[in-house]
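Hello,

Following up on my earlier ticket. Below are the three sequence lines again, exactly as submitted.
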Amino acid sequence: MKEKFKRLFSGGLGQMTIPIIALALLVIFNLIRDTSFFSIGIMHNNDGNAVLSGNIITIINGASELAILAMGMTLVTAACGGQDISVGAAAAIAGSVFVKVLKASTAISGGTVVLAFLCACIVAMLFALFNGTLVAVFKIQPMIATLILYTCGRSIAYWINGGATPTVYSSIITAIGGFIPGIPVPTPVLIVVVMALLFRVLFHFTSLRLFTQSVGINGDAARLNGINSTFIKLLSFLILGVCVAVSGCIGVSRLGLINHETLLLDIEMDTILAVAIGGNSLGGGKFKIGGSIIGAYVIQTLTITLYAMKVSSTDVKAYKAIVIILMVVIGSPVVKERFGKFMARLVHGSKRVSVKGVEE
Amino acid sequence: MKRKTLLLVGLLVLACLLTACGKDKDELIKIGVVNNPPSESGYREANVKDMEAVFSKDNGYDLKTFYSIKNDEQLQAAQGFITEGVDYLLISAAETTGWDDVLKKAKEAGIKVYLFDRMINVDASLYEAAVVSDMAKEGETAVKWLLDQNLSEYKVIHIQGAMGSDAQIGRTNALEEQFKSGKMTKVAQQTASWSEDEAKKIVEAVINSGEDFNVIYAENDGMAKGAVAALDAAGITHGVDGKVIVMGFDCNKWALRELLAKKWNYDGQCSPFQAKIISDLIKSGKAPSQKTIINEEKGFDAKTLTQSDIDTYGLGD
Amino acid sequence: MQEECLLTMRQIDKRFPGVVALNGVDFTLRKGEIHALMGENGAGKSTLIKVLTGVYQMDGGEIRVEGKPIFIKSPQDAQNHGISTVYQEITLCPNLTVAENMFIGREDSVWVRRGKYEKRAEEILMDLGVPARSTQQLGDCSLAVQQMVAIARAVDMKCKVLILDEPTSSLDDKEVQMLFSLMKDLKSQGVGIIFVTHFLEQVYEVSDRITVLRNGELVGEYLTEELPQVQLVSKMIGKELEELSNLGETEEKNSEEQEVFYEAEGLSSSAARPFDFSIRKGEVNGFTGLLGSGRSESVRAIFGADKVNGGTVKIKGQEVKITRPIDAMKNGIGYLAEDRKRDGIIADLSVRENIILAMQVMNGMFKPISRSESEAFADEYIKVLNIKTASRETPVGSLSGGNQQKVILARWLLTHPDYLILDEPTRGIDVGTKLEIQKLVLKLAEEGVSVTFISSEVEEMLRTCSRLIVMRDRYIVGELKGSDLNQTQVMKTIAGGEA
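Thanks for your patience. The regenerated structure is below:
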């Protein structure tokens, strides 16, 4: 524990330090502003279930799609050294497929929902494969490659919908997007936990983490060590595809409605930001999924804070930008190094110790 | 070789005969429609469908359509329709400027021009009439309805559309006046940029802050739905017999069904149905009495809404 | 020797963290001479050039131009002192015209009208006999002409010292002749030319004097006509390390009775010309030749590192297909790449992760090596190879070059290869580690592992290899073993037959 603490503050700042500090600052700011900001209560919703409520729940629940996308995006970023900017559009497509399949059946049962999800998953993975092929095989810059789907994705979603905003009504869908009767925690939060566990399992039972990092850090060396970097990159996109499908389906289930224009609108930028706030290099290489998840919650806390402060609509984006600039600058290597040196001096008394010296 | 030429000539003759036949049969009125693409919004989709339904062959029209959100493409298409020799040109322009030359050419060619949905910045002599919506009126209608409810106090959560859009400005202004005059209290006023999910978060934030409110004024149906989801999760009643009055706009069929179930209170509409008015003008053969015709805006109250209203005026399915 | 000294560099020192790149190097360039600067990779040629052109700041020493001491702070500074460089890769803009390229970025060019400088460019090109028009797009000219335009640009900037860094590497014979006649022309005008190349024939064809560097130190300055080619090669390659124990010299290197482990016939890749090659179990052999002779390209072909074009490969007599590194690895071949930074280490990953990488790849994605297992492997090899690292979780990028090399060695040793290819495993690392690696190679051979060893230092190879394959100009030109395995014979073969 002491070791960890030391590493956190003395040597080069650990990867998780920045997102945790950012989150802590936001929490402290809110507590000063309104001591009851983080109080949690139990309410009965209109279906008569006892459910948790409060700003924390709103934040954690609301960040679900973002957190799931950030997990997949982390992997793509690590392997390809670039980002997929089409996740929002692809999620709209996945959501549309989900609703299309649900509407095709007369009665919505658990089986239909699973089938609809699988269809959404397959479609999302096909589009991910398209992106991945452009990136891994044709070596196109990820941002450029995914710009194609970013541009046309929502139109494709419109074609699938065959019109604007189809709706579905089903208690199962309500349960997925809201609460399962008897469980006070919002279902999307549970899904995030499941996804995070799945990633953990994936990294535990395969060597994907090592291979992805190797490809991202030094593609040439990875190839000469027998790693098929094309495959690793494609795989990262496919995994992101699953994340896209999951978050698309959650987004649809929240309201039982698919609006191809607004579903997870602008989420790609928030996702990339979450990855960056999570302390991951956007240039690829080493990564921490946990950092990205915290990054997602940081962004959501920021949004909800601004809502709670009733910042006027026209100013919200400016405030968001200011906070984000601060976070990114604090996370920059320059500040990290200076801060590290400063802390090293504090920890080791007045002795001047270089950052390197402390690491060793 | 010879045989092929012969065949070709034969086909040509046949084609001529057929078209001639068609013409003889009945004189269709040729309509060229320049519009925005249906994928733009639910409103546009309904608008396009309405146009296609009213100006059908059965009603005696030969309809040609062109959809684009780009003004220059629209201009070219209008030019094309003029060259083709349509009888009437119907335009919903992407931008308000740049149409002078095209409309002048249309006038020279004796083609009558109707503007619908959107105005264009040209001399009024260049078109027969403009059938447009009055966004401000739409907001006023809704706010008037709200005032008619005679609540003892109005504590309003105002969820705005994408800032700067016509619909947002029209729907916001009427309510803003009430806030200014002090008749209504602004509990929250924030943009969700038409996003259902954002609307939900905005309402959740208010609920979590513990502030009281009794009206949700959402500038479209989707955002109203998001707001209602937040109310449901917090166990707050809404609708006709509920604590909170829910207001939406657009009149999607699914939203009107919410009204019918008395879960919402009001839904306003900027009517996308201009085709009937234009068709009537054309069939009457007379020049319209006024240049600008304001399309009647609908507003539905949950207490008086009927299933046939939904079938007639609801958008989508 | 009473020629006028144009440029003198005295006792130039340049240090990088952990490396002495130049140690008291002297260099003298006279007016109107072509002076070849020779040395193997890492000898300090490019560092010396970069000091001279202001890319690097020297740590000690003195530079004089025409007797006056000067301080070169930036490349712009160097140009102002009349020192111009034409690099191997053309650094001009192919989408501008010849004239624009000649005048771009020069202080006096801003206010000059187009017509005027086009005319001026035409004059210079004519003068130097460069077959290009001033209005032509540079990109439309051949590489040689582009090279010459770059030189013309330098000449017009009143350069006194012209540095040509590997100017001929992408030119064909005819183009080389064109370039040489231009060089001779400039020489007669009194320009001093520093010519950096690794083509020995060209040095003898065009240069007047040769300066040889080795390991950051000056070996000597010679008149070209007085220095036979064989001697030049031996001076470049050097004979250091002689003070070290003659390990393995007396050991039995004969493994001829062993079975052939690997055999290639007509193997070729996108980088290597077809060649035949074989190695027996427990044999240590080596590829030698100067830089660019094709030695690295050949072993890369064996490992499938470049696109393999043809040839048949047999492992223990069985025909196999090796087109990708993973094929080679599955057949028990390991490959330590020449460029450690680019092709070897995964810098941000820990020592532990770097060590287990190859083994993990061979195990496949679905059989991850457990944390405790990988820690045990890492600890074992850190101990066996005496890797100096703060911990097994230290990023490998922060280790010294020698220790990085040991980490990569550990990576391959962990896979227990039958055949290990080591391309320059000892380059840029300290003498002690060099010796350790050589010992390791011999120990592996004793255990029955076949090893192919490449080193720029012939001494080192003589000590470890029982057979040397000599390459020149991307062809195998000889194979030495037994009594032929001595310095003179190797030099002779590398230099091209003449004694």
